[in-house]
Amino acid sequence: MLDLLKAAILGVVEGITEWLPISSTGHLILADEFISLGMSDSFKEMFDVVIQFGAILAVVVLFWGQIWPFCNRVAVRHNGEKTGHYLVRRYCRQDVWAMWFKVLVAILPAMLIGLPLDDWMTEHLHNPPVVAAMLILYGILFIVVESNPRRVKMSSVKDLTWGAALGIGVFQVLSLVPGTSRSGATILGGILLGCSRTLAAEFTFFLAIPVMAGASLIKVLKFGFSFSAAELAVLGMGMLTAFVVSMLSIRFLMSYVKRHDFKVFGWYRILLGIVVLAYFFILKPMIG
User: Mind listing the pLDDT tens digit for each residue in 183-224?
Assistant: First the structure.
């Protein structure tokens, strides 16, 4: 029961921080210090990634009308005759297919660079100094970029150029460094490339679907499918909570960016980075 409660708390952390550009890793590395699941280290590593699948489902539910490329069946009068006979046809939404091809272009850099470096990144860079440094660095970048606004060249996914999609994918590669924030890197990249804040956020959500689903699948395959009943319950609770909280977080962010910039998230990142450094290098040695 206690592990289920801990999984729910971690799901809340994931659901909030995965979509807001404040780094889920930065928050989870602090949460791990105080909320320790009674499971193996390999399960915990897998859990931190796979609960993202719950967050992905929130994107699918909220944006279903924008991501499903097939329309409902439509009735067309046969040969134009007024006989009452109809043909039932399906047709594709070309704009949605174009969006998915842009997503495919954007994930190529992460596939080519991220997959080979995944284990190395986890082993060498998943530590408090790196996470804190990235939190502070990208916090400063958000403040600098938002203090020098650029002309918006693209305001919808339809306007997004293929070059901009690839560029956002390159920025996503930067998020392989823990503490960067995948959403933070892609939103920042989108703004720098001329996207509106709303477009940068939306494309980040769409881009997350294949990227996070792939990452979750890889972690499950590495862990294996021999889950105990307790492990399945904990994982299910984490994903469910991440899904519910992600629904609220995404709605909040999409409403927020229509009226505000991202400076507040930059200041928050800087503050969190300082907290991470203070805890791991001052407070923890004192109490440990």
Answer: 999 999 999 999 999 999 999 999 999 988 888 888 888 888
Top pLDDT among 117 and 17 is at 17
State the residue for tokens 């991220």.
114
**For residue 19, which of 208, 199, 154 has the smallest C-alpha distance?**
208
Task: Tell me the whole-structure pTM to 2 decimals.
Answer: 0.85
CA 269 to each of CA 20, 55, 87, 140, 181: distance values in angstroms, whole numbers, following the listed order: 11, 21, 57, 8, 10
Confidence of residue 62 (pLDDT cuts 50, 70, 90): very high
Contact between 160 and 195 (Cβ < 8 Å): yes
What is d(CA 78, CA 53) in angstroms, rounded to the nearest whole number?
A: 45
User: From the CB of residue 244, how many other CB atoms can be counted at a distance below 10 Å?
Assistant: 16
Partner residues linked to 74 by β-bridges: 89
- List, in sequence order, the alpha helices (H) in the chain: 2-17, 24-34, 41-50, 52-62, 64-67, 94-109, 115-125, 128-147, 162-174, 182-192, 197-223, 229-256, 263-278, 284-287
